[in-house]
Automatic annotation (TrEMBL):
Naturally occurring in which organism (per UniProt): Streptomyces albiaxialis
Protein name as it appears in the record: Protease HtpX homolog
Names of the cofactor(s): Zn(2+)
CDD domains: M48B_HtpX_like
Keywords: Cell membrane, Hydrolase, Membrane, Metal-binding, Metalloprotease, Protease, Transmembrane, Transmembrane helix, Zinc
Cofactor: binding details: Binds 1 zinc ion per subunit.
Domain Peptidase M48, chain residue ranges per copy: 74-291
Family: Belongs to the peptidase M48B family.
Major localisation: membrane
Pfam families recorded: Peptidase_M48
């Protein structure tokens, strides 16, 4: 337990999401086994291997994908100092601290539990924020670790990764040959069904993770603001980072977009459908909540 404010709504949503993701996972693997016949050992091997890799190495995979490198207190004294203060305030183990060399101002946390977690800030964020604003952002990210929702998001996103991989393998034709079918028509139907099933699974898992992701960001804002007692600092950081996003080169934003679910503020390369299915709630909704918390703390 930590001193971060508990959130029953978040806990309920995490349990519900994991239940439906687990059910969808079982159904998906079962359908693939039925469709692929004698290739079922390959299905179980791929599904099991990917799940283990995603769960045990998720923090390393995420850190590598987003260009994070772990830093020592001597290399980043201000960042380590802020994390030290917040961890002492929250009474939680200190995670590994990392920096990502990119001008996109953002931060994220990864890890399957508090003992195997990492918090990362980008060089763009460190250049733009003051000490109080930085602590507000880090408090938000550390709440994801304390509430364990970062681990749930990692596991929940695994099914979409698996569905995409199964689709690619099916299109390569490997499963059709493994089934041993000499009927060209049957092989064609199989090659059509697997991508359709995979696409359906991907869409459902995507919607489930998006519903959880939006709520968990509001929960992290609330918990982080209550821990520091300075919701105005977090609101200032949100406003500053969101405003700076429009000045970042489109190429850099496109590279960051696939990892929006883990970031403090989403990176969008333009007004597109991605905004409609954002992993984060609208900026104004986050600011309104912080305004209410500020008013409550001032009473």
């Amino acid at each position: 337990m930590t001193r971060y404010a508990p959130d029953r709504g978040l806990t309920t949503r995490m349990v519900t999401t994991m239940f439906f993701i687990g059910l969808l996972y079982v159904v998906f693997v079962g359908v693939l086994i039925v469709l692929l016949g004698r290739a079922w050992p390959m299905v179980l091997l791929i599904a099991g291997g990917l799940f283990i890799a995603q769960f045990w190495f998720s923090d390393r995979i995420a850190a590598f994908s987003m260009g994070a490198r772990e830093v020592t207190p001597e290399q980043a004294p201000e960042l380590h100092g802020a994390v030290d203060r917040l961890c002492a305030l929250a009474d939680m183990p200190k995670p590994r601290v990392a920096i990502a060399d990119t001008d996109v101002p953002n931060a994220f946390a990864t890890g399957r539990n508090q003992k195997n977690s990492m918090v990362c800030a980008t060089t763009g964020l460190l250049r733009r924020l003051g000490p109080d604003e930085l602590e507000g952002v880090l408090s938000h990210e550390l709440s994801h670790v304390a509430h364990r929702d970062v681990a749930v998001m990692t596991i929940a996103s695994f099914l979409g990764v698996l569905a995409g991989m199964m689709t690619r393998v099916a299109l390569w034709g490997g499963f059709g040959r493994a089934r041993g079918s000499d009927n060209n028509g049957g092989a064609a139907v199989l090659a059509l069904l697997i991508p359709l099933v995979s696409a359906l699974v991907y869409v459902i898992s995507f919607l489930l993770t998006r519903l959880l992701s939006r709520y968990r960001e509001l929960s992290a804002d609330r918990a982080g603001a209550l821990l520091t007692g300075r919701p105005s600092s977090l609101a200032s950081a949100l406003t500053k980072i969101s405003g700076e996003m429009s000045r970042i080169p489109t190429r850099d934003l496109r590279q960051a977009e696939p990892y929006n679910a883990f970031y403090f503020v989403p990176a969008f390369s333009g007004q597109s459908l991605a905004n409609l299915f954002s992993s984060h709630p609208p900026l104004q909704k986050r600011l309104d909540q912080l305004g209410r918390i500020s008013a409550q703390l001032g009473q």
